[in-house]
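Researcher: Structure for this, please.
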Amino acid sequence: MEDMRYVGILRSRGSNFRIKGKIDIIDSSTKDHAKMQQRVKSWFASSLKSRFQYLGPVPRFPVINEKLSNDSELDPSAGPVDTFCLLVFYPEEVDYLNLKRNERLLFALRCDSDESITWWSEKVNP
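Model: Predicted structure, C-alpha cell format:
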C-alpha cells in the first residue's frame, strides 16, 4: 500500500479538491485471492478497446513501426494481461476549497470509540 499525499483532482468554477489517502496496487504478482478477483472483475468491466491498450508498445515512446502498433490480438474471454494493474484508492482526508464563495471544508476519517469509522467535517478559514 502506497501513501498518497494531497493531490488536486478537480479545479473548476473556483473549486478545488485535494485528497490524501492510500493506494493499493493490485497487479499480476498479488497473492491475495480477493484482491485478484477484484482485478479480474475490473478487467472485464473495461471495454475491449480499453483492454487492448495493455498489449501495445510503451506509451509516450516514439512509434518505430506503425504496423507493429496495431497487430496485437486480444481474446475477449481471457483474463487480465500481466501489464494490467488495478489501483484502489482509500481516501483519508479531503480538503475542499471554493474561492468564489470564500469557503473551505476539511473532511477526515475518524475511528470512534466502538471502532466504527465515520467521516468528520469542519468548516475552516480559507
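Researcher: Any notable elements?
Model: The chain is about 15% helix and 40% strand. The chain has a mean pLDDT of 85.
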